[in-house]
């Protein structure tokens, strides 16, 4: 076996990228991590880690640290037009238990910091730059960076967001974007004494919803979502987005005005996103592979973080096998995709009606959906709500016991 460590460039430092760098470095690769942002991002909303994602956190040795930084969410409440809950679903306790409120609810920025903290010191981290050109041949990948420098690596692994620029450089127009017909605005607002630690979800007519969620830093994370055809809302500047939100959510009721005021008071926390999914015909092209949102951005389904962690773990493990077995990177990429493609596809399948069904246009539709929430909150009909909110755990792959996850006293779960 050669003593030369294969070189790998990983782009993206949210969740998938650092988890991948952790695994590859321990496996024996020479890893460089690249991030467009000039510094680690500490912002973001509440995110879930479920099922296999939690297993990966255990194997990384950070499960306890993650559990020490949960948001404290007690469960989910669906709010009626008069402001009172029509259904209350407490958080279920116990390892690997699922629910609208997962047992692991944590701020994205916090989890990103924890995962980034696992990256070994021998991994070079570069901030404030990005890939502007990619050329590859049978032996390696040449990349040009924003500062004009050119470098060569054995592999390029893209762990960026749904709008990945590097993916566009490699895949061109071969990316399918599945638009779900909903735009979302996220922000942070001040907490009030009467706020609870529940995730409150309010549905208003004209395809609108408002949610409030607790965090562990003394504020409230809020979202405004509305059904619409794409019109570029996500690309507007902050002032224009606030103007659109004021117009769209006029007369929505409940605590909508409070949320709008809070967004205006903390504009630096506001960001917008389209509910859309990414589907690639293949997760690799030559010596380049994709993972996380760059490969299968699933939208806010509650499984994005879990899929990112699992994808990073499996890709690192399959590449590790190329160092010790008669296998190539192409074999590793193929096994990575065949292991996870069906698992990912299931979590990109929305319930009948998709995101639009959760955004009724009429008052009658709001009454229908609140009735559904009320009935589904009872034990005999709880499976109805499960179909809408919970990921399907059937057919989950078994995580392989890769050697890198057992090193330095961290046994596989």
List the SSEs and their pairings.
Elements: E1 7-11, H1 16-27, E2 30-35, E3 46-49, H2 52-60, H3 63-67, E4 75-79, E5 85-90, E6 104-107, H4 108-116, E7 124-127, E8 131-136, E9 141-145, E10 150-153, E11 155-158, H5 165-171, E12 176-190, E13 198-204, E14 208-214, E15 219-227, H6 238-248, H7 256-265, E16 271-279, E17 284-285, E18 288-290, H8 293-296, H9 304-321, H10 329-347, H11 363-376, H12 382-389
Parallel strand pairs: 1-2, 1-11, 2-7, 4-13, 11-18
Antiparallel strand pairs: 3-6, 4-5, 8-9, 9-10, 12-15, 12-16, 13-14, 14-15, 17-18
Walkthrough of the structure:
There is one protein chain. A 7-stranded mixed beta sheet has the order 5-4-13-14-15-12-16, with helices on both faces. Strands 7-2-1-11-18-17 form a 6-stranded mixed beta sheet, with helices on both faces. It has a 3-stranded antiparallel beta sheet with strand order 8-9-10. Strand 14 and strand 15 form a beta hairpin. It is 31% helix and 25% strand. The protein is an alpha/beta fold and 413 residues long.
Give a concise summary.
31% of the residues lie in helices and 25% in strands. It is of the alpha/beta class.
Class of secondary structure makeup: alpha/beta
- Main pleated-sheet profile: 7 strands, mixed
Distance between the termini: 29 Å
Order of helices and strands: EHEEHHEEEHEEEEEHEEEEHHEEEHHHHH
How would the global form be characterised?
A: globular
Mean pLDDT: 89
Number of strands: 18
Radius of gyration in whole Å, from Cα? Answer: 22 Å
Helix-residue proportion: 25-40%
Tell me the number of helical segments per DSSP (H or I, 4 or more residues long): 12
Strand content: 25-35%
Tell me the strand order in the biggest sheet: 5-4-13-14-15-12-16
Low-confidence stretches: 409-413
